[in-house]
Each structure stands twice: as structure tokens, then as C-alpha cells.
Write a structure and sequence with these properties.
Bound molecules: cytidine-5'-diphosphate
Strand content: 15-25%
Distance between the termini: 16 Å
Structural class: alpha/beta
Helix content: 40-55%
Radius of gyration: 17 Å
């Protein structure tokens, strides 16, 4: 690991604003941003495309071994078009946000074999330099040595409202109750799974964004990162 590299881990439940904040922070600091949820979504996309049973761990594991996932920086100006993700060379950036993926992703992400296979890819991405990486187990499993860890929370109601608005704005016709059901179900599976559950790492800083503006949360986080860097410079 290069000296002075800064690795920032963000974890938290569904639709808590990790992606928005992760991209904003990464953009502000000129860091690489990795949304690990997009990787699980991409695998789910391929599983569904191949009509594979989402409970068949061995078949999915073979599929993962045979899959090439790549992430490319896209338009850093727009948060909606910040990176592209490809499965075997096919751009799936938009398709992985389809509610059909939301319905299935956590069932696949709970499979230990699949998670173990994806550790290498995530750690490899994190070796590239200064990074903001977000997901469910970044501070606990993927980058337990991350320099700064944040654990995001927001009330369930607010998270459901945010995701509903986002899906409607992106042109999906889905009703509020369905979004609510999906978020509650995903959080339950993600936090109850045995292997690498959604968890706040002991040393993670809690960030509650309920009723706070994006700017407010961003400024607060940037302040903490600045302080950390200053302190590290002094001790080096
Ligand atoms: O954007 P949202 O918070 O709704 O979800 P996401 O970050 O795109 O993640 C989608 C799903 O992938 C989660 O519900 C988890 O089941 C899984 N995931 C995971 O298990 N571990 C990660 N590090 C990231 C995502």
C-alpha cells in the first residue's frame, strides 16, 4: 500500500444516501469512488438474464468465476452518470437500477461463496490509491484497515421516500408500498445473513442524515476527513 493513501469506507442500509455522499466526497477530494452494491447488482443482472435459480449457490459461483466485471469512470460532473459498470463488456449501468434487481440482489449477496469470490475484486480496486468505497461490509470485512469509516443511518420512512422519488424520477412506474416492501426486506436479509452482514464496524463514525441537507452532511464529513489528514501529517 502506497504511503499517505487514504481509504474511506462508507457502510449503511438501503437507500440511506451512501452513493450520493460517496460520489460527492470522492469528487471533492479527487478520489476514486467504488459502489460495491453495483457489483452485486451486476452479478444479479447476469443471474436473472441466464434464468438461474437465485438460491443455487454453486451454479451462481461458477457464473461469478466466469464473469468479468469492470468499472470505468464516466462523467464526473453528473452524479447520475458518474461511472459505468460492465458485465463481460456489456454496459449494465442503467439496468442494474431496475426494481427487478432490487427484488433479488440481497438473496444472491447473502451467499457466502459469492461474497468470498468478490472480496478479491473489491480489494484490488481499493489498491488503486485514494478511494471512497461504499457498501455493507466495507469497514468490517473488505477494508478493515480503512483510514476512516462512516456508518450512515436515516429513518426508514425517509429512506423509502428517497428511493421512491429516485425511481420515479428515473422513469420507473412503481408504487410506494412496493418500494417500502423491497427496502424492508433487503435490510432484513442484509443484516441477518451469517456471513459479512450489514454491520457498523466498532471504529466507524455514525452519520445520521435524517432531516439533514446533503450539503450539511457533506461539509461535516469533509471537515472530519480534513482533520484526520492534518493529524496524520503531523504524526508522520
Ligand atoms: O443503493 P442501495 O443502498 O439500495 O443498495 P446498493 O448499495 O446498490 O446494494 C444493493 C444490494 O447489494 C444490497 O441490498 C446488498 O444485498 C448487496 N450488497 C452487499 O451485500 N454488500 C455490499 N458491500 C454492497 C451491497
Amino acid at each position: 500500500m502506497k504511503k499517505n493513501v487514504l481509504r474511506i469506507a462508507i457502510d449503511g442500509p438501503a437507500a440511506v444516501g451512501k452513493s450520493t455522499m460517496g460520489k460527492l466526497i470522492a469528487r471533492e477530494l479527487g478520489f476514486l469512488y467504488v459502489d460495491t452494491g453495483a457489483i452485486y447488482r451486476a452479478i444479479t443482472w447476469k443471474v436473472l438474464k441466464n434464468s438461474i435459480n437465485i438460491k443455487d449457490e454453486d451454479v451462481i459461483s461458477n457464473l461469478v468465476s466466469d464473469t468479468c466485471i469492470t468499472i470505468e469512470r464516466a462523467n464526473r460532473k453528473s452524479l447520475n452518470d458518474y461511472f459505468y459498470i460492465f458485465v463481460d463488456g456489456e454496459d449494465v449501468t442503467e439496468e442494474i437500477r431496475n426494481p427487478r434487481i432490487d427484488q433479488n440482489v440481497s438473496q444472491i449477496a447473502r451467499l457466502p461463496k459469492i461474497r468470498k469470490q468478490l472480496i478479491y475484486l473489491q480489494r484490488k480496486l481499493a489498491e488503486k490509491g485514494n478511494i471512497v468505497m461504499e457498501g455493507r461490509d466495507i469497514g468490517s470485512v473488505i477494508l478493515p484497515q480503512a483510514d476512516i469509516k462512516f456508518y450512515f443511518t436515516a429513518s426508514e420512512e425517509e429512506r423509502i421516500k428517497r428511493r421512491y422519488k429516485e425511481l420515479i424520477n428515473n422513469g420507473y412506474s412503481i408504487d410506494y408500498e412496493e418500494v417500502k416492501k423491497q427496502i424492508i426486506q433487503r435490510d432484513k436479509i442484509d443484516s441477518k445473513r451469517k456471513y459479512a452482514p450489514l454491520i457498523k464496524a466498532k471504529d466507524a463514525i455514525p452519520i445520521d442524515s435524517t432531516e439533514k441537507s446533503i450539503e450539511e452532511v457533506k461539509d461535516n464529513i469533509l471537515k472530519m476527513i480534513k482533520k484526520y489528514r492534518k493529524c496524520r501529517e503531523k504524526t508522520n
